[in-house]
Known about the structure:
Layout: H1 9-36, H2 49-66, E1 71-75, E2 80-84, H3 97-111
Antiparallel strand pairs: 1-2
Helix pairs in contact: 2-3
Amino acid sequence: GTSDAGQPAEEREAGAAHLSGMQGVHHTYILSWGVGNTYCGGWGGIPWCPPVLFLLSYAKLLRSIINPLYVTFLDYPSDTKEVWLVDGNIPYLKGKHIPLFLASLLALLLLF
């Protein structure tokens, strides 16, 4: 028999079998790729993806805590100034840097 589109039933069945076979192969490839590579999707990525995301977030939090503790020195011919490394316009442990430094120190002590 023929369908409304004029395609014989045998060709439709062969095409459907081919598509379902390809979907199976594609699905297996995605799952095996997720297990061995740095892919957070699929079934293989689920066990290790949350710990990696947690560690990345923790590293960013730690960097945000440690940034106010950085200091650098600006050497001038007549003087040397101590400034915050992140923003050289802010003197280290003076003015608005003091609350940043104290909050950072407190957070560091609470986390460790």
